[in-house]
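Case study.
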Amino acid sequence: ADEAGGDELRSVGDYFEGEGFQRWRRIYDDESEDVNKVQRDIRDGHAKTIDIALDWFGASIEGMTVCDAGCGTGSLTIPLALRGASVCASDISGAMTQEASRRFEIAAEGSSKAVRPSFEASDLESVRGSFNTVACLDVMIHYPDNKMEEMIGHLVSMSEDRIIMSFAPKTPYYSLLKRIGELFPGKSKATRAYLHAEEDVERALNKNGFKVTKRDMTATSFYFSRILEAVRE
Ligand code: SAM
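After joint prediction, the assembly is written out as follows.
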């Protein structure tokens, strides 16, 4: 069934503590040579998504409060913190937040502007607080539609002004690609991937009083991600 209950949340968490952590840590680390062609393509695609988000944040974000939900190894958190934003970085995987923290220390060495983020091992639904901007990049792929709506509801409840989120869009073409991908046995099938229709995501945002103000899309050969900015109306 396409229902992700507590079991799926737990299995996504377990995956990102172990095998998933090892895999994504290499993909997200520019300096790691230990990646194949597909992984390199995903790395490049993901870097573009991060660049778009950073561009939307802009350079003057000193003092801005940001919640980075599902922060991974800190690809977004770290550049924001280096620009002086006050980031609450959380991830269901403690291995991820530890790695993000380690990377922050290295990146921030000698910087006077950098603000140390608070790192928290927590699933995004347990994160609490109120932030200028809530960001959630490439996390929804792990959850089906019903769960996605619930997550958006919670994320926007923590946002004072704005949410920036990305997801793999459900279009006829990408649904086909995904089905073709599933025909090939491979070890990257450790978690299921869920695509989401942009209109479903937008409806969930609208229902919570947010209006989409920016849209962009990154597509490489093996990575595709729609990114939206929505603001409180
Ligand atoms: N947002 C980061 C980025 O773009 O660099 C990481 C993206 S990575 C594909 C997905 C991340 O979401 C993983 O680090 C995983 O541990 C985390 N994650 C998955 N389910 C989560 C949940 N329910 N709550 C918080 N984090 C979650």
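Observations recorded in class. The pocket of S-adenosylmethionine is lined by residues 9, 12, 16, 24, 28, 69-72, 75-76, 91-93, 96, 123-124, 137-139, 142 (CB under 6 Å). The CA atoms of residues 68 and 89 lie 5 Å apart. We will return to this complex in the next lecture.
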